[in-house]
Structures are given as C-alpha cells and as structure tokens.
Amino acid sequence: MTESRTTLYIVYTALGILLFITLFPIALMVLNSVKPSTQIVENPLAWPEVFRWDNFTRAWDDARFGRTLWNSVVLTTLTIVLVCTTGSLSAYVLARRKIKTWKVVTFYLLATTTAPIQLFLFPLYFGFARLGLINNPLAVACIYTAVYSPFAIMLLRTYFLAVPKELEEAALVDGATHWQVFRRVFLPIVSPGILTVALIIGLYSWNEFLVATTFLQGRDRLTAVVSFFQLSGQYTSDWGEIMAAALIIVLPVVVLFVALQRRFIEGMAGGSVKG
C-alpha cells in the first residue's frame, strides 16, 4: 500500500513538473501581451504596471491579421482536405489489399517522412516559378500534402487494419462495390483516426513557415505566421505587440484542440493498434 502511494506521488509530481514546463511559456506570453515593451525588457516576469490592451489592436492592424488569418485558414483547410482524402484512400488500399512490395512501400513512406523539406525547396521553387504557381495557395497545399501524407497514411492504415474483415466480406456479398464499402462501411468506423490526422496536419500547416514564406510572397497572400515574423524589426522590436500577436495566432489552435481533445485522445489510442 505504501509503495503504491509512493509511486502515485512520484507520478503526480512528474506530471506536475511537465504541466508547469508546458504552461509556463503560454502564461508568460499572456502576461507580456498586456505590458509595455520597456517593462518586458526590464523584467518579463513582473506583473504589468499598466495594462496595454492596445497591444492587440496594433498587432491586428500591423500584421494585417484580418487578411493573413483568413489566408492561413484557407491554406490549412485545403491541406487537411487533400491529406485526409489521399491518405485515407491510400491507407485503405494498403491495409485491405495484399501488396507484395509492402516492405518497399514502408521504406519509402518512412524515408519521405524523415527527409527534410529543405532538400526539395530549390527544385520545387524553380519548377513552380516556371509553371506560374508562386503565390498560389492550392500549389502550397499540394506541397504540404506531399510532405504530410506519408505520416497520415501510416497512421490511418492502422485504423483500417483494425476493422474486422467480416464487415467488408458481408458488404461485398450484399453486392456493394469496393468504393461503397470504403465510403459506407470503413469511413464511419475510422472517422476518429481521420479527425486525429486532420488536427495534427492542421496544426503543422497553421504553424509552417519555411514553405509559406518561400512560395507565398505577395502581400495579400501572406499567412499569419509569416506576417507575425515581419513584426520583428531589424534593430528594435515592440515586444508587447509581438506577444499580443503571438497570442492571437495561438488562441484559435488552443480553442480548437480543447474542444476536440477527447476525440483526439481516442483517435491516438485507436491508432496504436499494430498492423
């Protein structure tokens, strides 16, 4: 009994430390978002002497968040739709059909998952420039899809493998086509996995900087993360405004994750099934 209680205390202590490490930067960002820049430089941990709520209005106007947040929403939505569509179809085939070259496919998916995007950045840019696809959100969404799809396929495959074969066989016996089996039988069952993939890919796309700043150069095409980066001056920076802008960018993601956290955790647990 004593050993069990000691173990419980150790677990709770470790979780408390991890929680503090996770929440401390967010709390510091919230605290500094309403402080003057001079006070942040003097002591970022101090309580605000004067609450500067205008940091948020200046950040919204200077970063043009009314436009750039919409650009990020469009780009993230396109990426989620493309990744979930292509990933679920590919995962279904790889899970329910006998693939003789499955080891080769696995190696390819793992290799493309670990390969850095910097290796392909210059060839992609020159190719897209020749095709006139610079400043095209759909083209950037296609790049994201190519980068994130291997992860989505590997994760979704485990969900399709967990579906009993009897369901598929019964549907085929009843005269359903493979497309109908996929759409009406499998998709409702693996929907938690698709939601998990959508949340993860959405977070990656929302925060992505390198590809967005390379291929979306027009002022009206900038994403929120790129416009946030431009708030920092070469010699001086208004840290209160920067913290307020960071909070504006982070807040939608936090709200969405909190609202869907139960489904996300269920989806991650379901994806732990081994194929």
UniProtKB/TrEMBL annotation:
Family statement: Belongs to the binding-protein-dependent transport system permease family.
Membrane topology, record value: Multi-pass membrane protein
Entry GO terms, CC: plasma membrane
Residue span, ABC transmembrane type-1 domain: 69-260
Cell compartment(s), UniProt: Cell membrane
Annotated transmembrane regions: 7-31, 69-95, 107-126, 138-156, 185-206, 242-260
Record protein name field: Sugar ABC transporter, permease protein, ThuG
Keywords attached to this entry: Cell membrane, Membrane, Transmembrane, Transmembrane helix, Transport
Pfam families xrefs: BPD_transp_1 (PF00528)
InterPro entries membership: MetI-like, MetI-like_sf
GO biological process, one term: transmembrane transport
